[in-house]
Amino acid sequence: MAEKSKRKKRPAKSENTTLLQRTANITRKLFQPVPLITLAAALIAAFLLRTSAKWLPDLDHRAEYRITADSVEVSRGSEFVPSDLVAQAFHKSDLPPELSLLETSTTQQIYEALQRHPWVEQVTAVRKHVPARVTAELEYRQPVAMVEVPRGVYPIDRHGTLLPPEDFSVEDARSFLLITGVRSTPQGPPGTSWGDPAVDGAALIAEQLMNKFKEYRLQKIHCGQDRIDDAATYKLISHGGSRIIWGYAPDETRPGEPDTREKLKRLRKYRERFGGFEKPDGPYEINIRHWQEISRRPLTVKREQRKSL
């Protein structure tokens, strides 16, 4: 029995010996020149990474990495677009006076601030440059008409979007077609839709006449209402007092009524033939919405006084 006990203890001794041998082998390998050099390099690199930030300059606060409103260059707009548009955009969006060129969010912040400005229809690109400079490509809203309401006149673009009235002088306002007969008022601040389908339709007509209304001596677009379905209908008023029955808005299609292209063609044809909408013995009421022809009838002074727009 004693011999058997001794024999059972020998395997345990052999296992301990094997473990010690493995440990010794690992130790010998670690203390070879190559592993030691590698370990030392890793320790030095970790130390340098932790301390290098103290040695490097803080670029974030250097002038060539700080963006202000004056550092942002935008594409040029019309004469009515304010020169301080970028500063206004920064202010209205509550951006800080300075932004870091190194921050990844700076481009997005500037994009959103410019996109909110009432003169900007679309921001197509924003790019950062060193030293501190940002360039932005903008598509601007273009004024097409002024809308007359009891409180005054308000500029709109081709979509019926309200533009900043303060950017137009009295003389500027007179250089646009005047939309009359509007019963509503703006439903929101500049940069938002007027909110009236009648104004939207008049804006589309004004856009079509932008390049010709001065030559044709047109002064107003008057909004009326169809007696059958209450849809908006329009008349053009010339400086000489003639009324041109336009009909429905360009985006309205009605059976028997010519499209916008044909109506513009008829305006041109009439003017070329007679030299103006008041000639030869006007003012007239001229109807260009008939399917096949233009008709007209004279407007006498008495009739004008009895039934005015």
The top level CATH class name of the largest domain? Alpha Beta
Strand residue content: 15-25%
CATH topology of the largest domain: Rossmann fold
State the CATH architecture of the largest domain: 3-Layer(aba) Sandwich
Oligomer: single chain
Query: What structural class should be given to the helix and strand makeup?
Result: alpha/beta
Report mean pLDDT, rounded to a whole number.
Answer: 86
How do the strands line up in the largest sheet? 7-6-8-9-10-11-12-13
What does the largest sheet look like? 8 strands, mixed
**What is the CA–CA distance across the termini?**
130 Å
Number of helices: 8
Radius of gyration (CA) equals: 39 Å
Global geometry = elongated
Q: Please provide the ordered H/E string of secondary-structure elements.
A: HHEEHEHEEEEHEHEEEHEEH
**Uncertain spans:** 1-9, 302-309
Helix content: 25-40%
Task: Give a count of the beta strands, DSSP E runs of length 2 or more.
Answer: 13
Number of domain units: 2
Task: Describe the structure in your own words.
This protein is of the alpha/beta class and 309 residues long. It has two domains: 61-140, Roll (Ubiquitin-like (UB roll)); 143-306, Rossmann fold, CATH 3.40.50. It contains eight helices and 13 strands. It has helices at 2-30, 33-55, 85-92, 106-115, 170-173, 197-209, 260-274, 301-306, and strands at residues 66-67, 72-74, 99-100, 120-129, 133-140, 143-149, 152-157, 177-180, 218-225, 232-238, 243-248, 284-287, 295-298. It has an eight-stranded mixed β-sheet, covered by helices on one side. It has a three-stranded mixed β-sheet with strand order 2-5-4, covered by helices on one side. A two-stranded antiparallel ribbon has the order 1-3. Strand 4 and strand 5 form a beta hairpin. Helix 3 packs across helix 4 (106-115). The longest helix has 29 residues, at 2-30. It is elongated.
